[in-house]
Design goal:
With 285 residues, this protein is α/β, with parallel strands linked by helices. The protein has ten helices and twelve strands.
Length: 285
């Protein structure tokens, strides 16, 4: 079972092993949402299906959302129904990827864990690593599948809401890690949300710093050293990750797990929910 990262070679071996397997392309463009599907149609790993951040991995129906912000999570039951429609079973090994520096595919990785499915891994290096290796690719719309029997189980990750973050903001029990780029964290620019800045006391760890120059995750030792330096005296288990809307924070969740620092919490509403909630403090630095 692959539960964090999977290499191109390992995925190729899985494809011929007979193991129940589902591959999802999570390519997305935050500034041009329809582009993700267009890029999938143009080129994707052979046999992959498309999971769209706006359409499948978030909901804009307040009655079906579990949090606020720009990309609210759908209720687990709603998401499970979509997984069934995509042919997922409880014994399926899932592999997720994108062509965006493994930013968006982490969302599906986390959501499957949230629904109790441990057998999901991120393709290290994404589509670029796959095509460079000569992996089989395809174009066109995704294939149709028979409905799966996926069923919800106990969550394997920690979901944190705004009330929890606000309650523990100054009691020393949580360490907030902000995955946005440094200019947004400092409040110098804010291209997406109405308020610039960050949650008071948050540390900054841009999600793309988890990758090396070749576009792969850094080694476990490198990641462990970097997160240890970032956290200082704070305990890893106190960490609560966030970003703009609960998506690009997940690479930090994944990186800490790869580093052997445990599976840390996610504040899914993130800055877009925090800065739109009346009475909550915002800080610039």
């Amino acid at each position: 079972m692959y539960t964090t990262l999977i290499s191109v070679a390992q995925l190729k071996a899985l494809q011929t092993s007979g193991t129940p397997l589902a591959v999802f392309d999570c390519t997305f463009d935050l500034m041009n949402p329809p582009a993700g599907h267009s890029q999938f149609v143009e080129q994707h790993i052979a046999g992959a299906q498309h999971a769209d951040l706006d359409q499948h991995l978030a909901t804009h129906d307040a009655g079906k959302a579990v949090n606020g912000g720009r990309h609210p999570l759908p209720q687990r039951e709603v998401f499970a129904a979509w997984l069934q429609s995509m042919g997922l079973n409880n014994n399926t090994q899932v592999v997720v990827y994108d062509r965006n520096g493994m930013n968006y595919c982490g969302r599906l990785w986390w959501m499957l864990k949230w629904c109790g499915h441990e057998a999901v891994a991120v393709l290290d290096g994404g589509l670029q690593a796959w095509t460079t290796s000569g992996g089989a690719i395809a174009s066109g719309e995704q294939r149709t599948t028979e409905r799966g029997n996926f069923s919800l189980r106990a969550s394997l990750v920690t979901f944190i809401d705004t009330t929890h973050v606000a309650k523990h903001l100054n009691d020393g029990t949580q360490t907030i890690v902000d995955a946005r780029g440094a200019p947004r964290y400092r409040g110098e620019v804010e291209p997406l949300d109405p308020v610039a800045g960050h949650i008071p006391g948050a540390l900054n760890r841009p999600f793309n710093t988890n990758l090396n120059a070749d576009g792969f995750f850094k080694s476990a030792d490198e990641l462990r050293a970097e997160f240890t330096a970032l956290l200082g005296s704070a305990k890893p288990e106190s960490v609560v990750h966030h970003c703009g809307s609960g998506v690009s924070a997940v690479p930090n969740v994944l990186a800490m797990e790869v580093a052997g620092l445990g599976r840390t919490a996610l504040y899914a509403g993130s800055w877009s929910e925090w800065c739109n909630t009346a009475g909550l403090p915002c800080e610039k630095s």
